[in-house]
Amino acid sequence: MFDGCQALVLNADFRPLSYFPLSLWSWQDAVKAVVTERVHVLNEYDQVIHSPRRSLCLPSVIALKDYIPVSRRPAFTRFNVFLRDRFTCQYCCQPFPSHDLTFDHVIPRSKGGRTNWANVVTACQACNLIKGCRLPQEAGMHPRTPPVTPSSIQLRENGRGFPPNHLHQSWRDYLYWDSELESV
Ligand SMILES: [Zn+2]
Question: How far is the CA of 93 from the centre of ligand 1 (A)?
């Protein structure tokens, strides 16, 4: 019944744990963290839940009491490759939703190319098909940005550019993009 009442989760420095996807917890997890005193409550919904012993407003923004260090080396995952490349095909330079994207080995695996940050780029299905198993110079297709290992900070910055569809009013103070949204 409180399904829409997710809580925005901030690190102990009051920045979101993650921007994309935005760090949100279900109301159940948020309440559990409040009851076990692992978080500070910064803002609340109007909805109240009652237990035999106490009543509690559902939290809408919470901050961890213990800081979670942001790891310096981001994991090499499909999602993070897309995020590094800002969900943009590195060949035709068009942005796509993630389900329309795939990744391309700049130097094909059949020619010794490795599966790592320096050789994998985001590509749309069409460009991936056209390039096939050819080298960039053979296909005349070069990635727009030479692929490198991103820093966690860079990924976080990129994630800021992709606000979710739904933003609760109480979250906006803690997010970077609220002023941009309001000017739309
Ligand atoms: Zn493309």
Answer: 6
